[in-house]
Description:
The chain has two domains: 3-221, Rhopdopsin 7-helix transmembrane proteins, CATH 1.20.1070; 231-381, Reverse transcriptase/Diguanylate cyclase domain (Alpha-Beta Plaits, 2-Layer Sandwich). 66% of the residues lie in helices and 8% in strands. It has helices at residues 3-27, 33-54, 63-79, 82-96, 99-103, 106-126, 145-164, 171-193, 205-221, 231-244, 261-268, 270-287, 311-331, 355-381, and strands spanning 130-132, 138-140, 252-258, 293-298, 301-306, 340-346. The strands form two sheets. A four-stranded antiparallel sheet has the order 4-5-3-6, sandwiched between helices. A two-stranded antiparallel ribbon has the order 1-2. Strand 4 and strand 5 (301-306) form a beta hairpin. The longest helix has 27 residues, at 355-381. The protein starts with a helix and ends with a helix.
Amino acid sequence: MGLINNIIFNIYSIVIILIIYFFAFKYLRKNSLSDKFYMLILNTTIVMLLIDILSKFDGNSSIIYVVFNHIGNFMLFLMSPVLPSLWVVYVHYLVFRDEKRTKKLFYPLCGINIINAITLILSQFFGWFYYIDSENVYHRGPYFLIPIFITVILIFASLAIILSNYKKMNKNCWLSLILCTLPTFISIIFQVRFHGVSLILNSVVLPLLALLLTIQNHNIYTDYLTGVNNRKKLDSYLKERINLCNKEKSFSAILIDINNFKEINDNYGHKMGDDALETAAKLLKSCIRESDFIARYGGDEFCVVLDVSNKKDLEALVCRINKCLEEYNKCGAHLYKLEFSMGYAVYDYKTHKCVEEFLHQIDMLMYENKRAYKNKLKEICT
């Protein structure tokens, strides 16, 4: 690929990334660690595309071409593990949502980049990765595959994280992360096979755009704190279930309220209150099937929608939730005690209730359960 063609191709890629950057900056959550990693990946890709342009200033022995060629190739090899390292960190955080656990990856990844830098410096003396002759022409060294091998290993590491934890992820997000790696693999094969072809960085652009659309859609319908669906998605999902409901196929819903949530906030602080909400969401998810639907209804309330058509099975699930809650409280993992009030019902398709009417029905049942809980507390106190 000639210098002019490379400049045009890379500038075109940079313009697309800047457009992505504009929408990412506008719509992504500034306080989200995953979105910060995404922005960092965008910034790094732009820098490396500019460096890639410098690395194509060969074939001309003028001083400017020589300086640009040497700087460009050195920086390109130096930064080659940076982008896949960021990708591994980004994928890891999306899967586990554990900041402390993700930060532990920094040490081995920094080690890989340091080793690459030391090897690159030594390569300047022995020409292991590449060398530039007296005519300012770039040549591959005997070990030019080592940086590419490091990149492939890091991408495989991210794939291993995604594939081994697919049950923990949103299906659309999981699929997007898988598809994001395919263009990079294809471009690596081309670059190894055809000398002078440099498409790895350009191949990252379209996956970043696709990933932005996935992130944006995820953010629109996901509760940021608990990671479950939000009220907007709940309304849409219930409307769809009601439209599909018939004599043979119905569904159930449970509305759950955390008892004494205000006391948790007042006594232990809002951070502990947030922790209680996250814990409640995880506990509920552990009690239902992967195909079932869970959303944060609002405040300290959650709604679970289930493929259950009879009351007996529904009551069995409610008992399972209460049992999980009891076991959780016994372990004494937190200062507070987590307790639920629940209202639940099987949707009766004959009534033709709309979303609001059905939610109101289980909301009233939930408040009946809450009143019974408060009356029980009064009896114990007296």
